[in-house]
Amino acid sequence: MNTPLVRVVVLNFDGGQMTIDCLDSLLATDWPADKLEIVLVDNGSLDDVADRVRTGYPQVRLLEPLENLGFAGGCNLGMRLAGEHAYVALVNNDATVDRGWLRPLVQAAETAADIGAVSAKMLFADRYLGIEVAAPDAETIGRKDPRRQGVHFSATRIDGVRNDQRVSFDEGFYGPEEPDRANGDEIARWSRERGSIRITIEPGEPLPTVASLRVSSPTRPQPVSLSTEAERRELSVDAERTWVDVRLDDQPFDVINNVGSSLYRGGFGGDRGFLERDLGQYEEPAEVFAWCGGAVLLKREYLDTVGVFDERLFLYYEDTDLSWRGRLQGWRYLYEPSSVVRHRHAQSAGVGSPTFRFYTERNRLLVLAKNAPGRLALRAGLGELRRCARWMVSAYIMRPLRLQMPERTMSAHRRRVLASYVRLLPGVLRDRRAAKPRVSRRALMSWEVTK
């Protein structure tokens, strides 16, 4: 086959050395140099990356909008440039690519005319050691809360040293809560029935050998299992905070960031395989509902037909939206496991930050309003209205009645999400009415999966 021209768009927003590392890896790609066009969009950054690229990377085309256009607007600037390219690849500036990442993506894209995009295998940049947690007697929290709550972790040590940044928890745990400082808690994480604790390996340093975990079960005594390949600890825990030492393995492993994107129940877009240990379970190519904008190859015809990112979304869910719009026009997407990219996750806004929560919560509602079956879109919008109303009542009526100060942070967040959603909704609904889907919105819900 003739080697097609591929444009790679990288967006920099104060990425510093991470962006330079990304560019270096792209320039080492196993692809003819005259068929690879690298475009860096410097999105109103204050770092020195633009100057470094101007002086040291003449083969990189630099665009400087002099303002932050968001991920959507910045990538659009690079994708809309005139050129003879057959494909556009998007690679996050906080990622590095393997030398052979591009060729299998192009080969997969050329297997069928209706393949609009091919996703790479995105692994977390770090490697890990892990501890598996099992709390078989986890019980539902309450009559109105069906979540199953296991045991509580309040502190960690790695070879006797506290370093909370090295310790992470997978989706077998609930999100972080405010620690009980009065009782000496340093973290606050509740497990579900099963979960994994991950310990980041520091490059160039000896592997850690022992993890110490402080665990308790404040509501009732129950058994818990903490296991690695090296050791399995079975114990019964109660309200007393107990330190437990667990020997770690000597073989680090990779953790999956994204292997294509899925549509989850309720219209949530999400990373397929997210936080799973890479055991080879995703080593076969597969068709996926959507692609992730962190590492993807997009066919030129697909973009010409469907369009580019919706700049109203600014940050997050823009790839889910464009994927969904393409699906409605009959395009399909593939995941290709032999294309490997390593990613420093959520460097732009940080998972759980106010910025992350605002854009993901608002943009999900807007994407549903534009693309989903009417009943789901309406239910999601009304659900946000009820959620906001409940927070207002709780924060400004019920708390004062209990002689407590009004809660302002979360109530302000809920008002901001709802107000921005309502402001942008008319334009989104106009886009919905103007679309002429070739595939029914209801039919696409067959892709919906549960986590």
Describe the fold and architecture.
The structure is a single chain. With 451 residues, the protein is of the alpha+beta class. The protein has three domains: 6-125 and 256-343, Spore Coat Polysaccharide Biosynthesis Protein SpsA, Chain A (Alpha-Beta Complex), CATH 3.90.550.10; 128-247, no CATH class; 354-449. Helix content is 29%, strand content 29%. It has helices spanning 17-27, 49-56, 70-79, 102-109, 300-306, 318-328, 354-371, 374-401, 409-434, 441-444, and strands at 6-12, 36-42, 60-63, 87-91, 95-97, 115-124, 128-134, 139-142, 145-149, 152-158, 167-169, 189-190, 194-200, 210-216, 222-227, 232-237, 242-247, 256-258, 261-264, 268-271, 286-288, 295-299, 332-343, 448-449. A hairpin with a 2-residue loop joins strand 8 and strand 9. The longest helix has 28 residues, at 374-401.
Keywords:
451 residues; alpha+beta; Spore Coat Polysaccharide Biosynthesis Protein SpsA, Chain A; 3 domains; 10-stranded mixed β-sheet
Short description:
By secondary structure, this protein is α+β, with helices and mostly antiparallel strands.
**Judging by the overall fold, what is the CATH architecture of the largest domain?**
Alpha-Beta Complex
The share of residues in extended strands comes to 25-35%
- Name of the top-level CATH class of the largest domain: Alpha Beta
Mean pLDDT: 94
Using only C-alpha atoms, the radius of gyration works out to: 24 Å
Number of domains: 3
Largest sheet: 10 strands, mixed
Helix content: 25-40%
At the third CATH level, what is the topology name of the largest domain? Spore Coat Polysaccharide Biosynthesis Protein SpsA, Chain A
Count up the helices: 10
CATH superfamily of the largest domain: Spore Coat Polysaccharide Biosynthesis Protein SpsA, Chain A
Low-confidence stretches: none
Instruction: Give the helix/strand class.
Output: alpha+beta
| Total DSSP E strands | 24
Shape: globular
Terminal-residue CA separation = 40 Å
